[in-house]
Specification:
Layout lengths: L7 E4 L9 E6 L3 E6 L5 E5 H7 E5 L3
Length: 60
């Protein structure tokens, strides 16, 4: 999957704060995403993130 830093991801499950939109801040074997609701940053394995993405929002 083609992900870039700065992309916004709409996930299938909500974060505990209630928001389901995350911004991508780091890409590698793990992907670091930041919740747009509360600002919490989470580092998750790439396959797990790719499985839970509903939509990629990209500003071009």
């Amino acid at each position: 999957m083609d992900l870039r830093i700065g992309d916004r991801l709409v996930m299938k499950k909500n974060h505990p704060c209630g928001c389901n939109t995350f911004g991508v801040t780091r890409i590698g074997a793990d992907i670091k995403i930041k919740c747009e609701g509360c600002g919490r940053e989470v580092m998750i394995e790439r396959p797990k993130v790719e499985k839970n993405i509903r939509k990629v929002l990209r500003d071009e």
